[in-house]
Structure formats: C-alpha cells, structure tokens
From TrEMBL:
SMART domains listed in its UniProt record: cNMP
Pfam families xrefs: CLZ, cNMP_binding, Ion_trans
Gene field: CNGA4
InterPro entries (UniProt xref): CLZ_dom (IPR032406), CNG_cation_channel (IPR050866), cNMP-bd_CS (IPR018488), cNMP-bd_dom (IPR000595), cNMP-bd_dom_sf (IPR018490), Ion_trans_dom (IPR005821), K_chnl_volt-dep_EAG/ELK/ERG (IPR003938), RmlC-like_jellyroll (IPR014710)
Protein name: Cyclic nucleotide-binding domain-containing protein
Keyword S-adenosyl-L-methionine: no
PANTHER family membership: CYCLIC NUCLEOTIDE-GATED CATION CHANNEL ALPHA-4, CYCLIC NUCLEOTIDE-GATED CATION CHANNEL SUBUNIT A
Annotated source species: Felis catus (Cat)
Chain positions covered by the region annotation Disordered: 538-575
Domain Cyclic nucleotide-binding: 348-454
Subcellular location per the Swiss-Prot or TrEMBL entry: Membrane
Length: 575
C-alpha cells in the first residue's frame, strides 16, 4: 500500500462491469444501444406532433386513410410502452459506476417527473371513440407529453455528431417547419369554419377544379402560412373579425418567433458554442486534430467518450475560469459551499482554520478520469495530491489487474508527497499504481499552491507536518534517526543564522556611529571654514598696503586698527 494513500481495503475485488452487464440486460445511457433507441423514439413522437393535428384539421385525410392511421397510432403507442420498459432497464451512474440493479433503477425512475409524463402520454383517451366516433384524433393530444424524449435524442445526437453546428441549424429548421405546419392546419380549419370561398382570404371553394384534392388543400394552406409567418406579405386582406385575429396572432408569432430566430441564428449558434466552451472543453478542435493526425480509432473513441461523459453528466473541469469574474470573496463563498465538505474530510486538513480551508478550496482543480485510466504510476514524481469526489479507484499491481485496495469517495492519496517531512524514506516518489475503475471525479491540489497558502499560515503548516509525520510512523516510512539528524542540522543552521544576524546588527551599529562621527566632523570643518572667510573679508588689498607704506606709521596703525576691527566683527564661534 502506498505511503501517500488513504485506502479502504476490501477482501475481494468487485466484479468487472462487463460481467454484470452480461448477467443483467441493462442499457448504458451513454452506450450505442440506448442512443439508437432514442433515435427510434424520434419517429413516433414526430408522427404524433405532425399527423394528429393534420388529421384533426383535414377531415378528408382522416377519412381516407383511417385504417392506416389506426395501425400507426397503436404502433406508436406500442413504442411508447416499450420506451417505458427501456426506462426501467436503463442504468445510471452512481459514484462513476454504472448501476445495473433493476430495483434501484426502478425506484429511481418512478420518483421522477418523467415517469408521470410517460404514464400520462399513454392514458387510454382512445376509449372516448365509443362516444365520439373514430374520426376524433384530437383525443390523442396527450401523446405530445412524450416530447422531452425527442429533445433528449436531439441533445444526444448533437454530442455525437462530428458537425454539431450543422445539426443545430437542421434542428432549428425542423422546429420552424412544425410551427408552419400547425399554423397551416389551423388556417384550413378556420377556413372550413368560416366557409370555403366566402372571401379571398379563406381557402377557395373545393367545388372549383383542382381545389378539391387533399394535396392541393395542404400545400395551399402551407404556402399561405409561410407567407404570413415569414412576413413576406402578398396575402389577401382579411374581411372578417376572425380573419383579422388570426392574422394578428400570426404576425405576433412571426415577429417574436421565426423572424427573431432567423435574424439571429448565427449569434445563437455562436452563443451556444461560447457557453459550451465556458463549461466544457472544446471537443471539435480535438476531433479535428485527431482526424488530421490519423489517430487510431480506438483511442479516438476513448477521447469522444470522455467528452460525452462530461456533457451528459454536466461535469466541469474549468471551474476556476468560470468563476474568475466574481469578486474574490464571493468566489470563495461559492467554492466553499460546493467543495468544503469534500476538503474537510481529508485527515491532514481536519481541525485547520476555516480561512485556510477557504484558501485551499480556491486552489482545487477538478479532474475527470475514464475507466481504466491511470491516475499515477509507481515511481512517478509526486507533485500533487488527489481527493476523490466521486467514483472508485483501485490500487493495482504492475500487471494492472490485481487489486490491492479500492478507494472511494471522500478518500485521498498523494498527500505526503506535497508536504516536506524530514526523514521521509520514500522522498517524493509514488509507490503504487492507482487506476480508475469507472468514471472518477477528483480534486487535484499542487505542491506549489499548498506552499503558497501555508506561507500565510505557519502554525497550520506545523500542524500538517505533524499529522503527516504520524501517518509515516504508522506506515514505517519515517527514518527517525535521519529525521533527528535533519532537525539537528536545521537547528545548527538556524543557530549560525542567528549568529550572523547578531554580527550583522553589530556591524550596522558601528557603521551608524561612524556615519554620525563623520557628519559631526564635516559640520565642524564647515563652521571653521566659514569663520576664516569672515576673518579674511576685511583684510586690505595690496594697493592699500602700498599706500600705507608711503604714508608711514599712521598707515600701519590704521592697518592694525582695521585688522583688529575685522577680527572683532567676524562671525561668532558656532560652538
């Protein structure tokens, strides 16, 4: 067992997921079978969305193909029923492992809104045929409640297709077609209610040649609705209040819906890509890179499955970038509310200051590992520690098959490698192979980030080192003698540093005294020079001395008297 792992041992290895899938016919929600079933469900849902309204508004369509409609109706009902059965056999991820227990799957499904909507969509409203007759397809409008299944299929296809932008445009055009189709059906029904051919706005009288055919009726109505909803114009003016109301409603729908969507379709696609890029890595670039570099299909499939897992299960790997625009304090509160419970379960972080944990939470980097992927291998240099948020990892032998222990949510490993503990016999090398069993979500904390935080909390650093020392003692990975030697060496070094500090202080004191004496001497010299300048200011010039010599003794007396006055008038002694 590794010195940098906190594990929960098991007596036997868990059964391989592939064996469980063979025993229990449970579908993987990210697998191919479930994906193709979703695509199959697109047909009955789209059939009900398009055909039911059309049959209700075009009576000839309902009467002409009654048997075919009944067969298709109950075929779609059968698919709806099978879809519920599939729901009861669709697994879900728990701790990153696919749950294949039918009891847990059923219990989870019946407690969701999807189960209630699925039941409501299969309510036997057709029983009212006994009272109202077979030509009332509007009784089947509850089949529209299965529309969320259609949206799920579209979302799943969008994550799998190599051309997501083209698929989004196609999906948008499909929505526009459905809206125009419904509007054309309502237009024909309103024309039948007001009377065919009563004015230029309603559908022409079917008695006219060519207008009695069902295809002409639908195409004329679809064309008329397209003109209105695209705001092209060139439509007859309404003549009745009902017609005015219908036109106003269509214009509002066109302005608020289709025109807005078509006018900003490029910006919508850009915003969708921007939002995806903010939460999830851009898989389009990776796909293009692998295609250009001719990466083998097996590895390419693993990469695509990893991206699909992130999007389906809403996993984010760049939380720091998402929260970077929040104020620092608010960002810390959000991170604490999400991850503090996970961090507080780590033994070496227990009983630490709350502010320290808040700082560490901001340094956590989420990472997601795929089934069978190694988190670390024996002999690797340990530069970070890992905290298991969700999923299961195994400590395996060098063959990658033999399992020594299983790590679950809340456990951690690699903590010793990021704390410099004296006497650690393993240094910073990994001593175990740790592999992800399923999809595992981990938090990564690097040595540099921990060191940066602990520089502000020296007392917490001491506490964490003491806890790490206790863990090493329990694992017999602590060399006490080497630890004592390192401690003695560190104390000797600290003693020498203290001596050097004292000597440096003494030198600084002596240097300060020398500077003071130098300043005092410079001041005294300056005063003396100034005094001499005052004394020499009144001295006679050579011409005056020559005249004094000519005049005789009086000149000498005068000169002496002047010299005496000059000396008396000099500046006072600064001392």
């Amino acid at each position: 067992m590794s010195q940098d792992s906190k594990v929960k041992t098991t007596e036997s290895s868990p059964p391989a997921p592939s064996k469980a899938r063979k025993l229990l016919p449970v579908l993987d929600p990210s697998g191919d079978y479930y994906y193709w079933w979703l695509n199959t469900m697109v047909f009955p849902v789209m059939y009900n969305l398009i055909i039911i309204v059309c049959r209700a508004c075009f009576p000839d369509l309902q009467h002409s193909y009654l048997v075919a409609w009944l067969v298709l109706d109950y075929t779609s009902d059968l698919l709806y029923l099978l879809d519920i059965v599939v729901r009861f056999h669709t697994g879900f991820l728990d701790q990153g492992i696919l749950v294949v227990d039918k009891g847990r799957i059923s219990s989870r499904y019946v407690r969701t809104w999807s189960f209630l909507l699925d039941l409501a969509s299969l309510m036997p409203t057709d029983a009212a045929y006994v009272q109202l007759g077979l030509h009332t397809p509007m009784l089947r409008l509850n089949r529209f409640l299965r529309v969320p299944r259609l949206f799920e299929a579209f979302d799943r296809t969008e994550t799998r297709t190599a051309y997501p932008n083209a698929f989004r445009i196609t999906k948008l055009m499909l929505y526009i077609f459905v809206v125009i189709h419904w509007n054309s059906c309502l237009y024909f029904a309103l024309s039948r209610y007001l009377g065919f051919g009563r004015d230029a706005w309603v559908y022409p009288d079917p008695a006219q040649p060519g207008f009695e055919r069902l295809r002409r009726q639908y195409l004329y109505s679809f064309y008329f609705s397209t003109l209105i909803l695209t705001t092209v114009g060139d439509t007859p003016l309404p003549a009745r209040e009902e017609e005015y109301l219908f036109m106003v409603g269509d214009f509002l729908l066109a302005v608020m819906g289709f025109a807005t969507i078509m006018g900003s379709m490029s910006s919508v696609i850009y915003n969708m890509n921007t939002a995806d890029a903010a939460f999830y890595p851009d898989h389009a670039l990776v796909k293009k890179y692998m295609k250009q570099q001719h990466v083998n299909r097996r590895l390419e499939r693993r990469v695509i499955d990893w991206y699909q897992h992130l999007q389906i299960n809403k996993k984010m790997t760049n939380e720091v970038a998402i929260l970077q625009h929040l104020p620092e304090r608010l960002r810390a509160e959000v991170a604490v509310s999400v991850h503090l419970s996970t961090l507080s379960r780590v033994q070496i972080f227990q009983n630490c200051e709350a502010s320290l944990l808040e700082e560490l939470v901001l340094k956590l980097q989420p990472q997601t590992y795929s089934p069978g992927e190694y988190v670390c291998r024996k002999g690797d240099i340990g530069r970070e520690m890992y905290i298991i948020r969700e999923g299961q990892l195994a400590v395996v032998a060098d063959d990658g098959v033999t399992q020594y222990a299983v790590l679950g949510a809340g456990l951690y490993f690699g903590e010793i490698s990021i704390i410099n503990i004296k006497g650690n016999m393993s240094g910073n090398r990994r001593t175990a192979n740790i592999k992800s069993l399923g999809y595992s979500d981990l938090f990564c904390l690097s040595k540099e980030d921990l060191r940066e935080v602990l520089s502000e909390y020296p007392q917490a650093q001491v506490v964490m080192e003491e806890k790490g020392r206790e863990i090493l003692l329990k694992m017999n990975k602590l060399d006490v003698n080497a630890e004592a030697a390192e401690i003695a060496l560190q104390e000797a070094t600290e003693s020498r540093l203290r001596g050097l500090d004292q000597q440096l202080d003494d030198l600084q004191t002596k240097f300060a005294r020398l500077l003071a004496e130098l300043e005092s001497s410079a001041l005294k010299i300056a005063y003396r020079i100034e005094r001499l300048e005052w004394q020499t200011r009144e001295w006679p010039m050579p011409e005056e001395l020559a005249e004094a010599d000519d005049e005789g003794e009086p000149g000498e007396g005068t000169s002496q008297g002047g010299e005496g006055r000059s000396a008396q008038e000099g500046p006072p002694d600064p001392e």
